[in-house]
Design goal:
Elements: E1 5-10, E2 15-22, H1 26-38, H2 46-62, H3 64-75, H4 79-102, E3 108-111, E4 124-130, E5 133-137, H5 151-159, E6 163-166, H6 172-188, E7 196-199, H7 202-210, E8 214-220, H8 223-235, E9 242-245, E10 251-254, H9 256-275, E11 287-291, H10 294-308, H11 318-332, E12 338-341, E13 344-345, E14 351-352, E15 354-359, H12 360-363, E16 381-387, H13 390-397, E17 403-409, H14 412-415, H15 496-505, E18 509-514, E19 552-558, E20 579-581, E21 584-586
Helix pairs in contact: 1-7, 2-4, 2-6, 3-4, 3-6, 4-5, 9-10
Pfam family, one: Aldedh
Protein name: Aldehyde dehydrogenase family protein
InterPro entries: Ald_DH/histidinol_DH (IPR016161), Ald_DH_C (IPR016163), Ald_DH_N (IPR016162), Aldehyde_DH_dom (IPR015590), Aldehyde_DH_Superfamily (IPR050740)
Length: about 575
């Protein structure tokens, strides 16, 4: 039987553009993985790895016009957005080259033998080594930064791991072009082409994670697709690490003080964040808790005006468009849900942005129909939940699953560590609210309405109802948010309502923002892009220099003769690596 063709499709029209490839057979997946496995030794030299990453960045920059044109034709993300994404991608490659050259990621530690200790200590020398072949599952919404030349690939290569990428079906032509440039960079730095493999197709994605020579996997996509691959990775005879980014609601809490001071600014900022990229960012704010009353009304009017003036946009593919339309229709039909600006179809191939409102008390109800509003809906929509007091804020936060981000909009006094009143109503009693007693989230799980990566590249439809319970999410018990109570746990170094709210949000997310918006993830050493399940399946980050740690494991040498030690662990430090010797940093 002939292999299924892989088509590049124009999301602006839904029409096929060109056949790019054919779906990989099991034999072709096996060949790609074995070629990568055979290339491991070639990546052992850190200088070669750094050269590969820099040359890849140069070639991608040099082909920028072609790459942006190809990506725009397949994703409709626009030349401006894609040019910025390409710049981010090549910056990321060069940043990982710097990480490789600096060498701290190897975490070299030497403890010399000390027979005087009880018990006596042998000579111990520890560092980290690459895991082996890494499977990377490309995302739909970032055809460069989270796809073939993206952060998973760059960090794996930096660690010394060859990569086989499962291309996303929404941008196969861009994937082929990017892979060709990476292979060219490999050839020009003296590396075999097998260091970068590329396969297409749903079944290829399954075969890849099950292959016995694949040592780890990175994924960005839907809860349903990611969970299927995560389970497959765990079910192998030899389970492997699976670092997946699955789904995130990215809650925002707006205090009454913040709304009093700058309701219009917050409304405009929220509109810009939730509609950025037609709402197709994994960190889009999908749930906003705002106070009832005049200040909250001003915020809602500002949001209404800004969203109403947003032009209709194109989603990444028509499957996602259908899922978005079904998702907003189902949510809008729930009792007490209103649509000041109705999200939905903008035209035959486009969608219009909108937002829904609901009393926050509805979201605090356990196991009701409104749980749907606590699940991510991929596209330009958010839910504005109007709360009466801090008890309602606490009750809603306690039911949320894990997230990539959580945002606070605070007033000036709250930012200064001072109480700005006793609750949303402005005259509350100061009653403490325990935020989350058990630490487990609602069974709804926070699913993703698109198939943003499709395990496989091919999942369609809404993922509603597929979430799995993720223990450990939800705000910690006893973390109060009252505006004026006395028994609240705040934080080790902060006081006041702002600190208490921040403490309440901390267990929910990997990145906390104050008076900003979560869309946009800076590539920086201190960045963390991850969070409690279902935001991610591990505690690692997929953005920033420490993302390299996902693809390494520690090894310690005990009383190994000096002549047999790897260069990284030798006494004279021939590679000039940063290290800790007997507990003291040195180089």
């Amino acid at each position: 039987m002939a292999a299924a063709p892989v088509w590049s499709v124009d999301p602006r029209t839904g029409k096929r553009r060109e056949q790019v490839a054919v779906e990989a057979t099991a034999a072709e997946v096996d060949a790609a993985v074995r070629a990568a496995h055979d290339a491991r030794d070639a990546l052992a030299d850190r200088r070669v790895r750094a050269a590969l990453l820099r040359r890849a960045a140069d070639l991608l920059d040099g082909a920028g016009e072609r790459i942006v044109e190809a990506a725009d034709a397949e994703t409709a993300l626009g030349p401006g957005r894609l040019t910025g994404e390409l710049g981010r991608t090549t910056y990321q490659l060069r940043a990982f080259a710097d990480v490789v050259e600096e060498g701290a990621f190897l975490d070299v530690r030497i403890d010399h033998a000390d027979p005087a200790l009880t018990p006596p200590r042998p000579d111990l020398r520890r560092y980290k080594i690459p895991l082996g072949v890494v499977a990377v599952y490309a995302a739909s919404n970032f055809p460069l930064a989270f796809s073939v030349p993206g952060g998973d690939t760059a960090s794996a290569l930096a660690a010394g791991c060859p990569v086989v990428v499962k291309a996303h079906p929404d941008h196969p032509a861009t994937s082929e072009l990017s892979a060709a440039l990476l292979r060219r960079a490999a050839a020009e730095t003296g590396l075999p082409a097998g260091v970068i493999g590329l396969v297409h197709g749903f079944e290829a994605g399954i075969e890849l994670v099950r292959h016995p020579l694949v040592a780890a996997a990175g994924f960005t996509g839907s809860v349903r697709g990611g969970r299927a691959l995560y389970d497959a990775a765990a079910a192998r005879p030899h389970p492997i690490p699976f670092h997946g980014e699955l789904g995130s609601l990215n809650p925002v809490v707006v205090t009454e003080a913040a709304a009093d001071e700058r309701a219009e600014e917050i409304g405009r900022g929220l509109a810009g964040s939730m509609t950025l990229g037609t709402g197709q960012f994994c960190v889009k704010p999908g749930l906003v808790l705002a106070p009832r009353g005049p200040a909250g009304d001003r915020l809602e009017r500002s949001l209404t005006e800004a969203v109403s003036n947003t032009e209709a946009g194109v989603l990444l593919d028509h499957r996602m468009r259908d899922a978005f339309l079904d998702g907003v229709r189902e949510r809008a039909a729930l009792p007490d849900v209103q649509a000041p600006v109705t999200p939905g179809a903008g035209g035959e191939h486009t969608v219009s942005a909108g937002f829904l409102t609901v009393p926050a008390a509805r979201l605090a109800e356990d196991g009701g129909a409104h749980d749907l509003l606590l699940e991510e809906c991929f596209g330009p929509v958010t839910v504005l939940a109007r709360y009466t007091d801090d008890a309602e804020v606490g009750a809603v936060l306690a039911r949320l699953p894990g997230n990539l981000t959580a945002t606070l909009q605070l007033g000036a006094a709250e930012c200064a560590g001072e109480d700005a009143g006793a609750g949303a109503s402005g005259g509350g009693t100061g009653t403490e609210t325990a935020m989350g007693g058990t630490g487990t989230e609602a069974a709804t799980g926070g699913t993703r309405a698109d198939a943003r990566s499709g395990a496989s590249g091919g999942g369609t439809g809404a993922d509603a109802g597929s979430g799995a319970s993720g223990a450990g999410t939800g705000a910690d018990a006893g973390t109060g948010v009252s505006g004026g109570g006395t028994g609240a746990a705040a934080s080790a170094n902060g006081t006041g309502r702002g600190a208490r709210l921040l403490a309440a949000l901390t267990p929910l997310a990997g990145r906390l923002l104050v008076n900003g918006w979560p869309t946009g993830v800076a590539v920086a050493p201190a960045q963390h892009h991850g969070g409690p399940y279902p935001a991610t399946t591990s505690t690692a980050t997929s953005v920033g220099g420490t993302a390299v740690e996902r693809w390494l494991r520690p090894v310690v040498h005990q009383d190994t003769p000096p002549a047999l030690l790897p260069p990284e662990l030798r006494e004279d430090n021939p590679l000039n690596l940063p290290r800790r010797v007997d507990g003291r940093p040195e180089r």
